Amino acid sequence: MVFGLVSCATATISEEEMKRQFGNMMDKKIGQTEAEIVRSWGVPANQYLASDRNFLTYFFGNNRCKITLELKNNKVVTYRGLGINYCMTYK
CATH code at 58? Predict the structure, then answer.
């Protein structure tokens, strides 16, 4: 996994701005294949298959950031992040 840590000493940004930055970062994952995601982030912590959907869950920052990617036809179609303020330290 390749991540760059953002310094805790950086200026405080609003929750809205954090969500916007997280969305911009994650939007780049839309359309990527499962192999590309695993190459980038490693093996997921959890994987769940439901009909034609595959859900990959990753935890970062001592499990304070949870990101679930939803794949259809082996490509990321959407995502969900919990603990976005912690997720933003991992870009």
Answer: 3.30.1450.10
Separation CA 31–CA 33 (nearest Å): 6
One-letter identity of residue 51: S
Q: Which residues span the domain enclosing 75?
A: 1-6+31-91
Q: Are 7 and 88 in contact (CB under 8 A)?
A: no
76 domain residue, yes or no: yes
The span from the CA of 6 to the CA of 74, in Å, is 31
pLDDT by 10s per residue, the chain, length 91: 444 434 444 567 788 888 888 888 899 999 999 999 999 999 999 999 999 999 999 998 888 889 999 999 999 999 998 887 767 655 4
N residues, the chain: 91
What three-state secondary structure class fits 82?
A: strand
Number of domains in the chain: 1
